[in-house]
Amino acid sequence: MKIGILGGGQLGRMLLQQAANYVVETYVLENDENCPAAHLCHHFTKGDITNFNDVYNFGKQLDALTIEIESVNVAALEKLEAEGVTIYPKPSAIKIIKNKILQKQFYKENQIPTSEFVITATLDELKAHAH
User: Which PANTHER family match (predicted)?
Assistant: First the structure.
């Protein structure tokens, strides 16, 4: 099984350390060739996790793909998922995680405890709600 990670920071490194316990081939996409995960994966690809083409071309060779940070190209993940690549977490969840307004609304709609919030679209609205 070929498993990819978007991002090669400390979380990516920890994922790879656990993956070593399984019969999997690991791939990492990251801009920094000296990132913490670079020397632990089987295959390292230098690329931008926010770039559609980099993410899509990296992911289309894999069976499964995960992220270590939410700042990834979700459109590429959606296309990969539609083409049969298993994505964890699902692109629909990543969209919510990336947008703090959507995240707070999701919490409220699903009765998940969160701090009070007010959504503002303009500076004037922000000033009107400031204490």
Answer: PHOSPHORIBOSYLAMINOIMIDAZOLE CARBOXYLASE, PURINE BIOSYNTHESIS PROTEIN 6/7, PUR6/7
